[in-house]
Amino acid sequence: MNIQYLLDDLVADIKATPPEGNVADYIPGLETVDPDQFGIAVAMNSGETYSAGNSSTEFSIQSISKVFTLALTIAKDEDDLWTRVSREPSGTPFNSLVQLEHEHGIPRNPFINSGALVVTDRLLTLTGDSHACLQTFLREQSSNPSIEVNEAIAASESLTGHRNASLAYFLTSYQNLVNPVPEVLNAYFRQCAIAMSCEDLARGGSFLSRGGIGANGRVLTADQVRRLNAVMLTCGTYDAAGDFAYRVGLPCKSGVGGGILAVAPGTCTIAVWGPRLGKSGNSAAGVTALAKLTERTGWSVF
Ligand code: DON
């Protein structure tokens, strides 16, 4: 199979298709991106990286950061975390407040915002600085020492993140956040505001398709990675997780910056980026490209 040819062809297809969806604008700064860019990168387990389109352009990773903070947390302490967060698909928008009260302050999963705040809180306790721990990890895994936070996006999330603040205080009222809310929020916003390209992300997530082996050795055990991929498949794309499993058939994690990280266990890690989002907050072009890619390669877990 000629993977480079396939990626070039997918990019040409996306460019020729009328654009769908809109760029997220609830975080000021995200909407200034040229909406019709599209990039894809595939990091093979054998070591090669293939890429096409705007694959080296940096974008805001947003909720894709949640996969990495979860990985770093379960590497240090898996058991405690699962008493504070469930592992069920939410079926509600990623920033919903309703379900949290219903379920007595235990978030449905670590990938909705409330769950990610609990993960960040735990990582803060375990490391003292969850954002620095994440940034160091991403630089090492992507072999890119210049990965940084986009400070303007971090500041704008801080100014406008009223829902996240509500979720954080709500979690505290159930004793499910132990660190001060402003500290947890600051770490969470900085994690979301990290800027990476498709090439960085595909390489950075390679441990997920390589049974836990990252750029400098083991990140997670094979069992931990299998479980993390299961949570991505069932919860990584919010209320669209069923449709993703049906159309793409791979564990995926999306972000409102328009990126999606997908894992073909044993084969490769894929990153796509297209800033226009469909109604569930996932990149519209990204889903289309991933569905075509898995159809043409057979890279599906099913
Ligand atoms: O907290 C937020 O709302 C954003 N920083 C992240 C949301 C996000 O990426 C959801 N993904 N689809």
Walkthrough of the structure:
By secondary structure, this protein is of the alpha+beta class. It has a single domain, classed as Beta-lactamase (3-Layer(aba) Sandwich). The protein has 14 helices and twelve strands. The strands form four sheets. The protein has a five-stranded antiparallel sheet. A three-stranded antiparallel sheet has the order 4-6-5. Strands 1-12 form a two-stranded antiparallel ribbon. It is globular, with a radius of gyration of 18 Å. It starts with a helix and ends in a 5-residue tail after the last helix. The model has no long low-confidence stretch (mean pLDDT 96). It binds 6-diazenyl-5-OXO-L-norleucine (DON). The site of 6-diazenyl-5-OXO-L-norleucine has 12 residues, from loops.
Topology:
Elements: H1 3-16, E1 22-23, E2 39-44, E3 49-53, E4 59-60, H2 65-76, H3 78-81, H4 98-102, H5 113-127, H6 130-142, E5 148-149, H7 151-160, H8 162-173, H9 181-192, E6 194-196, H10 198-204, H11 206-209, E7 213-214, E8 217-218, H12 222-235, H13 241-247, E9 252-254, E10 259-264, E11 268-273, E12 276-277, H14 284-297
Antiparallel strand pairs: 1-12, 2-3, 2-11, 4-6, 5-6, 7-8, 9-10, 10-11
Bound molecules: 6-diazenyl-5-OXO-L-norleucine.
